[in-house]
Design a protein that fits this description.
335 residues; alpha/beta; Quinone Oxidoreductase, Chain A, domain 1; Rossmann fold; 7-stranded mixed sheet; 6-stranded parallel sheet; 24% strand; globular; binds NADPH dihydro-nicotinamide-adenine-dinucleotide phosphate; NADP-dependent oxidoreductase; ADH_N_2; NAD(P)-bd_dom_sf
Length: 335
């Protein structure tokens, strides 16, 4: 039973030394428990937050504890009345081969044809896009919606839902390949490369009527370019700030908070953060119904970036924080 634990808290970007691969015996389930074999492990930006002991909405992972993570697993032994050997389940086993579970936080996946989608478009990232865009962004037909990390798990879904709702969608992505995919495969109206030296100017040209909804995934230079384009009454769901997750201190330079708040005030902008964990009880079932129909009809798709082997999870995760993934990053742990 291999497991990857947090060896040390990163200073800035995580390094290989912050992770350690260990071998343990495969655990044995007691009465009322199941033994799970991890098939797929989801890698997500929030894991950077768990590696740190800075204040957050969730407690940090302790040093020497297994890295947390959503998983699709097969039940390989069951002493639980609700689960049988062979069942596929969505759970949170983290970065390891096997886990014993009391079943409380497991969701049965039935005979899902494509089980890893439970970690992407039909799971946490898809739900994040759906909730943040529809309940906070509230896009109207003809409005302009901007989203960065547009080929990634959340951004790709945000843009496709906004298109379904009749909005004009401008994506931001890192590199020409990702931008081409966002335009040609996901059907966005425009996509701007964030590495382009003329990024801010090109974004302004693509948003001739300003921006009505900015779905905030990244912060940093993208936010700087977006701010002057926001329209009166714009909505800004604050979902993530990945450009800052490795920051160790605030950026130098003049304090621009008054500029931001002045803009929010004058333009009556609604800026609202959310943590998707808060919304499962009420929101997940209706999301799942509607998204399943969109996926079945081919209206929403999401490319998966599948990395083989649990031992490659640390490198893949470090790459996620630099934009090296192309689509939803998932580790294939076993068949
Ligand atoms: P992605 O699959 O989109 O992967 C992350 C992407 O972020 C990279 O591929 C890269 O895209 C982009 N990126 C990385 N570094 C930078 C940078 N310095 N500046 C700009 N972009 C960068 O990840 P997710 O879809 O899983 O997550 C997207 C955002 O949503 C994250 O901020 C995450 O924390 C947040 N989130 C928030 C949740 C909540 O409950 N609030 C729940 C789930 C996710 P590219 O190279 O194309 O620019």
């Amino acid at each position: 039973n291999r497991r990857i634990v947090l060896a040390s808290r990163p200073k800035g970007a995580p390094t290989p030394q912050d992770f350690r691969l260990e071998q343990r015996d495969v655990p044995t389930p007691a009465e009322g428990e199941v033994l799970l074999r991890t098939l797929y492990l989801s890698l997500d930006p929030y894991m950077r937050g768990r590696m740190s002991d800075a204040p957050s909405y969730a407690p940090p992972t302790a040093i020497d504890d297994v890295m947390v993570g959503g998983t699709v697993s097969r039940v390989v032994a069951s002493r639980h009345p609700k689960f049988a050997e062979g069942d596929l389940v969505l759970g949170g086993s983290g970065w390891q081969d096997y886990e014993v579970s009391n079943g409380r936080d497991l969701m049965a996946l039935g005979n899902a044809a494509h089980p890893s989608l439970a970690l992407s478009v039909l799971g946490m990232p898809g739900f994040t896009a759906y909730h943040g865009l529809l309940n906070i962004g509230e896009p109207k037909p003809g409005e302009t919606v901007v989203v960065a990390a547009a080929s990634g798990a959340v951004g790709a879904v945000v843009g496709q839902i906004a298109r379904i709702k009749g909005a004009r969608v401008v994506g931001v992505a890192g590199g020409a390949d990702k931008c081409r995919y966002v335009l040609d495969e996901l059907g966005f109206d425009a996509c701007i490369d964030r590495n382009d030296p003329q990024f801010a100017q090109k974004l302004a040209e693509a948003c001739k009527d300003g921006i009505d909804v900015y779905f905030e995934n990244v912060g940093g230079a993208v936010l700087d370019a977006v701010l002057p384009l926001l329209n009166e009454g714009a909505r800004v769901p604050v979902c993530g700030l990945i450009a800052h997750y490795n920051d160790q201190k605030l950026p130098a330079g003049p304090d621009r908070l008054p500029l931001l708040l002045g803009l929010v005030l004058r333009k009556r902008i609604r800026l609202q953060g959310f943590i998707i964990l808060d919304h499962y009880a009420d929101g997940f079932a209706p999301f799942y119904r509607e998204m399943s129909a969109w996926v079945a009809a081919g209206k929403v798709k999401l490319r998966e970036d599948i990395v083989d082997g649990l031992e490659n999870a640390p490198a893949a995760f470090m790459g996620l924080l630099e934009g090296k993934n192309f689509g939803k990053l998932v580790v294939h742990v076993a068949d």
